[in-house]
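Thread title: Can someone regenerate the structure for this chain?

I was given the following input by a collaborator and told the matching structure tokens would be attached. They weren't. Posting the sequence so someone can regenerate them.
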Amino acid sequence: MGKLGELLSHPDEFMPLFRMYRAAKRAAKLPQDPDLAFCYGMLNDVSRSFAIVIQQLPNPLRDAICVFYLVLRGLDTVEDDMALQVDFKVPELKRFHERIYDRGFTMACGYNHYKRLMAQFGTVVSVFLQLEPAHQRVIADITRRMGHGMADFIEKEVVTVADYDLYCHYVAGLVGIGLSQLFAASGLESPGMAVAEDLSNHMGLFLQKTNIIRDYLEDIMEEPAPRMFWPREIWGRYGATLADFKEPANRQRAVQCLNHMITDALRHVPYCMQYMEQLRHVMVFRFCAIPQIMAIGTLAICYNNGKLFEGVVKMRRGETATVFETCNHLGDVYSWFLKYLDVLEAKVAGQVAADDPSLPETRQAVSSAKQLIGKSLAEWRAAHPPAPDSFLALARDWAALLLACAYAYAVWGLGALPEALAPHAWLLQQQAALQRAVSVVLLLVAFVAVVGARRGA
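Best answer:
Regenerated them for you:
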């Protein structure tokens, strides 16, 4: 289904898509300072959705997280570039935390936008050195810990699930820990967030494992050689090599392995909930919660889905826009998670073969997560009863719907015009086809405003 087909089949996503487009345009407006402009421009190039949520954070936290992200992207670029020799790469990873104090540092590595990032890394360094000392210390420490961890895995295969957890800790769990420390240092979150390393780690692992699962085909096809992080302890139960899973003849076993990988990722969900329940600043909350919702949504789509071994599997853009628009408090997070857990539960009940090795564990993981989150949602709703719609809001939305209906009535010629408008009938005859198309769009928008908003209340 093409983009137009997706939009027509989900008209309630039209307005969220439009508003997300406007948010992306705002995020693309760069600061006047040339160094900051480079950093935010690069952020837009490498992660447009991340750029939108980061732009909503207050400063100085916003600039600190932008720089933090780019520093770690630089470190990740060194790790990912398979053209670099190991004897060069390992020491560079271990001393990268020192490079972020060197205004003249550049490196010829990476691809596309990342190549430009590394060629102009001194600009990132300049902004880093303007950050508050507390923020600099967090970024440097996490970069050091991550660089040493990445170096340990350069020539080490991910064999056990423990190896898998440790690798994900180095490349993503530490990001969660660093972000929590930045939140606390900014004063927007409590000092306790800085020491909540276990929960912060689970937040990172859940996101990283989702990416590793989703990107199977892209990673296995990487040149000059793939780097894969699916643990042998899991995939070895289903095939002789990881590359075998992309072959159609091995699809059944590949999907069983995929289901096992997703089941492993689900064990982090309760800890992610605990973390988000501690956040108090709405923009920090959105910054953390939106990627988590996207992760559970992606896992729900990927579960038992053989298309993952053929191409890109991801959430609809309109669905993503709706998540961005309707993630403002814990009630929203609970509702989104329950929605995608319902998708997983339906697949477990009706699509997965009874002999799937991880099925019992998956069923238990989904059931326990639903029970936990369902209880939390009920408690949250009891403590936060919905406010009734104001009379003005109701009047506004219904007036818009009535006007849209009246316009459609007129341009489609469904009856005689009121006598007072009869002299102006020629206006409706100009570009009649275009006006009819516009009337349909207006009806859809007005209907979503009246019905969709009330349903989501």
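The chain has a mean pLDDT of 89.
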